[in-house]
Write a structure and sequence with these properties.
It is built from 17 helices and no strands. The chain is mainly α. The relative contact order is 0.18. The site of iron/sulfur cluster (SF4) has 14 residues, from loops. Its EC number is 4.2.99.18. Its cofactor is [4Fe-4S] cluster.
Length: 364
């Protein structure tokens, strides 16, 4: 049974925790919620969402191929996961003594090898694919221009607030030409609910004018062109490429950075360095869907301040288990969106989304 299959049945002590801690000699407080919050605040200038267009392939053949390679060599983590599944119904159990904890030459406190970390990382990705088979971008959009605009607006606010704002925006300015010709004050008024509306209006007017003048009113499908647009950084560009053009990309937003550091996939804080290190762990075909899954998990379970460890489906694979609430009942109450039985962020979610749509502006 997979770890995901046993989720919520109980959250055993992480078998990789001691190893990973030993790997860097770092205590649980290494990436504390407070530190992460501060970092997230600094780095979340253009908070991104993720891709749907890459979904079909990511959990498909390439994932299975990757999984196959991992399974051919993996021992410890998988054994631990299997054990977790077998015992999950009985509630939390120590995984002490599992193969993972006793991997050859890697006793408690010993560093986890890079190879073992890669196997564990790929295992987590597969587990998350089971938990969130419906993972998708959480910004509503109908074309690349709408996604670009929505992603720029998502800086320093929630995707929900953006989704509640963009219907009126795109009704008034459906194309780059329309938006470039907008009266700034009118544009500002519409996007006011997303915050920082004057700066965002300047970006939208600027990028719309460049799209109109230099790209024939179309959003370019190249990173080099996208990052030259006003208000568009590498993260926003990757979101657009991955979602609207099917070009694999990693979205290193505040959730992604926090989780991959908690999982000890990297210790980097700089988003570009994080992107480079995570890109080396996974095949390109996985990048977009991996981003969706990690961000989904960060928003629903592994929160910055209070991770719901006691209700976390990948707890047996997480070296930071225990950083948050471990009591299953209390942890269950921390779950958000569809995991907590609440509406999602999109007003128009995909058909396979198991939760309910978000309410329109003013109704929440
Ligand atoms: S909630 Fe986060 S920190 Fe806690 S076990 Fe899950 S992934 Fe690890």
């Amino acid at each position: 049974m997979s770890v995901a299959g046993s989720r919520l049945a109980g959250c055993p002590e992480s078998p990789v925790r001691a190893q990973a801690k030993g790997a860097d000699g770092v205590s649980d407080g290494h990436d504390s919620a407070v530190g992460e919050q501060a970092a997230g605040s600094r780095k979340n200038k253009d908070k991104a969402t993720v891709n749907r267009s890459g979904r079909a392939g990511s959990a498909g053949s390439s994932e299975r191929a990757t999984a196959g390679r991992g399974e051919a060599v993996a021992t410890g983590v998988q054994s631990a996961a299997a054990e977790s599944g077998a015992t999950g119904a009985d509630g939390p159990k120590s995984t002490k003594g599992t193969k993972s904890a006793k991997a050859p030459g890697k006793g408690p406190g010993r560093p986890e090898s890079h190879l073992a970390m890669v196997r564990r990382a790929r295992r987590i990705n597969r587990e998350l694919a089971e938990v969130y088979p419906y993972a998708h971008p959480e910004l509503d959009f109908r074309n690349p221009f709408e996604l670009l605009v929505a992603t720029v607006l998502s800086a320093q606010t929630t995707d929900l607030r953006v989704n509640q704002t963009t219907p009126a925006l795109f009704a008034a300015y459906p194309t780059p030409e329309d938006m470039a010709a907008a009266v700034p004050e009118d544009l500002e008024e519409i996007i006011r609910p997303t915050g920082f509306f004057r700066a965002k209006a300047r970006s939208l007017l600027g990028l719309s004018a460049v799209l109109r003048d230099d790209f024939g009113g179309e959003v370019p499908g190249r990173l080099a062109d996208l990052v030259k647009l006003p208000g568009v950084g590498r993260k926003t560009a990757n979101v657009v490429l991955g979602n609207a053009f099917g070009v694999p990309g990693l979205t290193v937003d505040t959730h992604f950075g926090r989780l991959v550091r908690r999982w000890k996939w990297t210790e980097q804080e700089d988003p570009e360095k994080v992107e480079a290190e995570i890109a080396a762990i996974f095949p390109k075909s996985e990048w977009t869907m991996l981003s969706h899954r990690v961000i989904f998990h960060g928003r629903r379970v592994c929160h910055a301040r209070k991770p719901a460890c006691g209700a976390c489906p990948i707890a047996p694979l997480c070296p930071s288990y225990g950083e948050g609430e471990t009591d299953p009942e209390k942890a269950q109450k921390l779950l958000k969106y569809e995991m907590g039985g609440k509406p999602g962020q999109r007003l128009n979610p995909p058909p396979d989304f198991p939760g309910s749509p978000a309410p329109p502006l003013g109704a929440d």
